[in-house]
Amino acid sequence: MGALAGVGVKVVLAGLLGFGLRRKGFVTAELAQDLGKLLLSVIAPFAIVAAATRPYQAELASSLYTTLAVSVTYFVLAVALGVAVSRMTPMEVAERRALVCLSTFPNMTFIGMPIVAELFGAAGLLCAVVANLVFNLFFFTFAENYMGSVGFKLKTIVTSPVVIACVVAVVIFFGRLPVPDAFGSAFAMLGGAMAPIAMMIVGFGLAESYLGELIRNPFGYLAGGMRLLFWPVLVLVAGRLLGLDTLAVNSATILFAMPCGTMTVMLAARSGRAYRFCAQSVVQSNAMMFLTLPGIYWLIQIWP
To answer: What's 90's DSSP letter?
Structure first.
């Protein structure tokens, strides 16, 4: 429980700090956007590559292979169940499709990677790297077409610093490429700011939202409930019962306990369909995460 309390305090304080700074006007919308770019373009890539500079270990390699299998299985099942659930709602077609993507795709890069790194260290972050590559594969094949996005270029993702860093990390680790200690330490130092900045960015987003709109978004609770509770609990239970690698299951559980991904909002904005529903649901799930994530981590702790 000590680790849970420590991480919980860090997450909540960083989120509250971001919320307060944005509400009081100390952080402008432009600065908040720039910090997001800094996180994705500089800080996160350094942290990802730093995680791969550890010596090759067969046990860790096994964890990465298990993470790959768990991630692929998750996305296939999440899409299938999401489509089935959405068809039982009275929502319009565009919103039903948005519900599928919101409940399937978590905020894995902005929030998931920093929290996994905080909880499980560099080894956990490497698991998150593998899961992130699977995320991109499914998102930019299924989600982009399913949401009817227009003008969204796969090239912009393939050339993004985070994706490049993920590929470099995998090559370094499995290729057993030596990285000088000085570089590894420098990368780790730069990447150390990933978690607090990510949670401050969450606080910025919450500060710009109106409570009334979030409360009056009933199907956002459905997306958030599947995203924050149903899937992570299912991954944890299935992983434990099947006796899968502990690090892989723990990392995947936390990654799939993250709020609805902002990338779905981007697709909705570009296609001009269900944008308001997506935006409200993402903010709503970010707020809910502060209540659900401690419970998910507690389950991980009591079921080793």
So the answer is: -
Residue 261 has what DSSP assignment?
Answer: P
pTM: 0.79
* 91, 244 Cβ separation under 8 angstroms: no
The neighbour count for residue 28, using CB atoms within 10 Å, is 11
Residue 130, token pair as written in the block:
């593998």
Domain map of the chain by residue range? 30-302
Residue 303 CA to residue 190 CA, distance in Å, equals: 34
Q: What does the pLDDT profile of the chain (304 residues) look like in tens digits?
A: 455 556 667 667 777 888 888 888 888 878 777 877 787 688 878 877 877 777 777 788 899 999 999 999 999 999 999 999 999 999 888 889 999 999 999 988 778 888 898 889 888 988 998 998 888 888 877 887 788 755 555 666 667 787 788 788 888 888 888 878 888 788 878 877 776 777 777 677 667 666 666 677 788 889 999 999 999 999 999 999 999 999 999 999 999 999 988 778 777 766 677 777 887 888 888 888 888 988 999 999 888 8
**Cross-strand partners of 57:** none
Structure tokens given for 217: 């978004």
CA angle 12/14/20 to nearest 5° reads 95
Alpha carbon 226 to chain centroid, angstroms: 14
CATH number among 3.40.50.2000, 2.60.40.770, 3.90.76.10, 1.20.1530.20, domain 30-302: 1.20.1530.20
Tokens of 259: 């709020």
Selection from 114, 96, 104, 173 nearest residue 134 by Cα: 104
